[in-house]
Every structure is written in structure tokens, then in C-alpha cells.
Hints:
- By secondary structure, the protein is an alpha/beta fold.
- It has helices spanning about 5-15, 20-30, 40-50, 55-65, 70-85, 95-105, 115-130, 205-215, 245-255, 270-290, 295-320, 360-370; strands spanning about 135-140, 155-160, 175-180, 190-195, 215-230, 260-265, 340-350, 380, 385-390, 395.
- The chain has 12 helices and 10 strands.
- Zinc ion (ZN) binds near residues 377 and 389.
Amino acid sequence: MSGLIEEYNYAGLQCSEKKDFHGAIRWFDKALEGTPSPIILFNLANAYRGMGELQKAIEHYLKSLVYAPQYNLTRNMLLECLAPCRSLHIDGKPNIAELLVKFRDDMGWPDVLENPSSTKEFLHLYAAACRCTPDSVVLDISAGFCRNKDFFLHTQYVSIDLEVASDWNWDFSKLDLIGDALNLPIKKNSIDMILNSSSLEHYPDPFAAFAEFSRVLKPGGFLYLDAPFTHVEHQIPHDYFRFSRYGLNYLCSRYGLAPLSITPDSSYLMGGYRMLFEALSAFKNTDFVKNGLPERGKAAEEAMAYLEAKVKPLFIDIDQDPLLCPEGLSSTITNCTQYPIRYNLVAKKPGEQLPSRRYSSRAALLTEIVECPACHAAQLDWSASQCQCMSCEMIFGRNEYAIPRLVIS
Ligand SMILES: [Zn+2]
């Protein structure tokens, strides 16, 4: 910590001691204006806890863990806040404690409190949810099995996917619409928030996808996207590209979106470590074992155990300096030493924000935002079990391309 930041931090601690938590929060916020520091984030979380703001406390404990995942004290304090916070009734807002427990236990991220990449993924989704009001129309593009739906229960959430996942037996039954991200059956300027998670690499034309994001977003609307920079090939053959922060920045600016932040989910060292670990676990689980070479699988397993026990703790110690994990764009070489699994992007469509409105029903909402993907006419006849465009007369059945499927529930 530099001298001035240390002084702010000290002033904050003095206030906390006198139970002047408002004063403490002001000082800690001031100290955090420059480089994020796990210790100051931890102190800030304690101050929020002191004044009974448990949601805020959890959020800042999590932010602290992003930079210092080895701090068990931080984790324990957070866990102490979870139980009382989960029972709080929160109207029209996401409940961080409830979401954190769901994310960890039901959504397949048991390492959310241990692994900075998972913690960042969670905070990225939570930040998106916090931007929304009950009037916001949220479009989750390529939503898959709707993993992220729980973050947006307080909004008007609509999911769409083309249903082509090949690696996993996903349950697509929760989707609102079947449709192509490269030719969305959605009216222009109709969406307050687009969510696009781990999907951009699966589009053969990411430029067309960004053109669509930009078209359907309202002026003043937001895009929350994450896309991989290094990741094993998956969902083959539908795996086409990887994205650097500069590529994402370019995609935004080319289609008139203003990037607000582009954040690596992991730093150089831990990103590299995870790639190595993932490669070894592939050997352990499948190839060698299946091909009658179990002793090689065993060797992979031993190598992984060694890495976890001996190498990982050293890497975490080297990596904990937040300066190694800078956010945003920079042309200097030190900031280019990045090796994340993915980048989290937040972008905004410029312009004055159009008012949102709450629709009387789900059917009313979908009727309002859906249009024909073939001719872009807005008049669709939903009355039959199939849906027909009243302009080009295209009929949308489940086995054709770009099919809006209306699910009224
Ligand atoms: Zn049409």
C-alpha cells in the first residue's frame, strides 16, 4: 500500500473502532479508488457488516477473495453473514446470499469461494442482476439450460437458444424461444439487458452476433458477456473462436457499443496452471484409461496431486498481487501478460435510456418483443400450436432454423 492509501485505511479503521461505520466506509472507499486491495476490501466488508448491511458485506468479502483466495478469515466472515442474510425478504432485488448458495450448490460451481475465476463469474452475473429493475427486459442469448435464470427472477427474463449443444445432455425445456443469435427473432431497440455467457466462441460469425446485440438493445441498454480466451475445444464441431480483450473491444466499437469494462477472470499464472491441470485431468479421466493404459492415467493423477499440493500454493502466493491482474485495456507490455480462461465484458449501447415497462403477462411481453426472423415483420399469429408470420407467411416449426417458440407459463 502506498503512504496515502495506508492513511485512508488507518482512518477507516479508527472510525470502525468507534462504530462510526458510515465514516469508515467513506475512508475505505477513498482508499480503494486506485488499486484494489484485498485487505481494504475486507475492512470495508467488516464495516458494512458492522452497520447490518449484510448484502453489501458479502459482496465485498467476495471482491476481497478475488484477489486473495487463500484468506480463510475472509471466507469465514462471509459464511457467517450467509445464513441470516438468506432469510431476509428482498422485494424486487436479487438476494446475494441466496444466489451464492444456489450458484455453489445447484449450479455446479462448488469452488465459488475458492477459485477467483468462479468468484468473478458470480460477481459478473450479480452485477448484471443489480442493474435491473422489475421493469427490465432481460434477454439471455444462448441460454442453454437457463443456468443464469435465478439471477434475474426479479426482472422480465427471456431466454433463447438454438438447441445445438453437442457435448452435454442439456434440458432445453425451460427456454422461452428457440432462435439463432446471428439472426434474432427480436425487435430492434427492445431489450434493456443482454446476457451472453460462454457462447460467443460457438458462433461461426461473432461479428453478426455483435451486430444483433447492438440492434436489439435499447439505447442505454447493457450487454454482459463472457467469452473464453484459453479453453479446450468443446461442443465440437460448434467451437470456432477465442477472444482477446482487444478483440472484444473491437467487436464493441465496430457495432456501436461502448465497452465499460473488460476483465480477465484469472491472472497469468493461475490461468496457465488451470490449463495444465485441465489437460492432465483429461488423461486421468478418459484417454489412457479407456485405451488400456491405466498406469498412464495413474501417472497423470499423481502429477495432479503434486501440482495441487506443492505448486498451486506457491502460484497463489506469487499471483495474489492485484497488479498482476489488471482490468481494462493497456498498451504496456506488463499489462499484456495475461492468460485468463475468459474475459468478462460489460458494454453499453450509447443514447438516452428508454423507459422500461412491466408487461401484464409473459405472453404480452413476448408478443411485444418477438418479430419474424425471416422478414422482420412484427405481426405474428401465435394462436395455433405453431406460429406464423402474417407478412411472409413463414411458419415456425421446431425443426426449422430460427424458430421462435412461444411458451406461455
Ligand atoms: Zn416474416
